[in-house]
Amino acid sequence: MELDTIFIAIVVLLAGAKLLGELFRRIKQPALGGEILAGIILGPTLFGIIQISDGLELISTIAIFFVMLFIGLEMNLSEIRKEGKSAFIISITSLIIPFFVGYQLSVFFGLELIQSLFMGLLLSITSVPVSAMILLELGVLKTKIGAVVMAVAVIDDIISLVILAVILQLHVSEGMSLDFEELGISILQMTIYLIGIAFLAFVVYKRSHWFPQRFEYFFTKAKTRESKFGIFIVVAITLSLIADLAGLHFIIGTFFAGLIFSEKILGKKEPNKTYGIISGITFGFFAPLFFAIIGIKFSGQSLENFIPLLVLLIIFGIIGKTFGGYIGTKLSKIPNIQGLAIASLLNGRGTVGLTITAISYALGILDIALFSVCVAICLITTIITPIIAKPLLRKTN
What we know:
Blueprint: H1 2-26, H2 31-42, H3 54-74, H4 77-108, H5 113-124, H6 128-138, H7 144-173, H8 180-206, H9 210-221, H10 227-245, H11 250-260, H12 271-297, H13 307-331, H14 336-344, H15 350-362, H16 368-396
């Protein structure tokens, strides 16, 4: 009976999420807004048709894996190399200022240390998938502005996930007496893992001719259908498990698996097929369910006492991210209007923000009220970003 209930919940959620996601796309908004709204409508906040269960929680965890894998796969390290110094400077300034603002606001409203750090992190994020979609909708994805924004978003997300790993580690040790030996071992484990990932990326990219050729030879001899997809998933799961053993969250490994084994590394004949399979699984099934489940967990009623915090975090988050990004563009000697346009486009927190919010809620860092605040921040800032950027982009033409 439990299996029947889960399947019914999946069908209802998926249908609602795809329907409202399509509606949002038609009004030139990210589909994730409609998918979350579907969960809010079908969940306890409104009609209560679907209730959260262990089965849906398991599906949500698997969905996080595929969403983060695709986020990593969407990123291109060559974008960072092209923009280089400018992207790194903009990324750092656009991270530091909103992080500090979010942390201070949260402390002022009485949040705990770990919660305050997380709020600062959330305001610092620029989601790569959402940024790509916004740039595409605004017709600037292939321009200089689009290239800079995407490069900054890639660096932002990498740094943000490392910061998340530190916050999760602090959360695990919270409430216990500080054991410097244990802390040192944890830092050493994380450092070794990150160095290992950096070395793997170096080997793969520096041996970019040798690596795909060996892959191509293997897959031309393989008789099993979609063998490349299967091995890619095995590699991603392996890196995820090693990340977990190193004291990092498993999504760190998932993300790096996608980032390192990008389309270039997957070979010349098969990458589009493999990419298409992952894209279809992610956006055809797991991502809509993931965002709809977030909508189910969202509690509009619990926001009642947190409206001032929510409003201030949104306002100062947008101002802090834009101001920080603009300082970076000035340091990079990008013209004023272009700099403002780039800075304003960094506010889409969407997919990555929602993913780390779901993880933090599952691990007990956030309660239901703060979880709902974070979901609202991600959704509202993602919707507002193209509205703010449009008039600035017109002036750059």
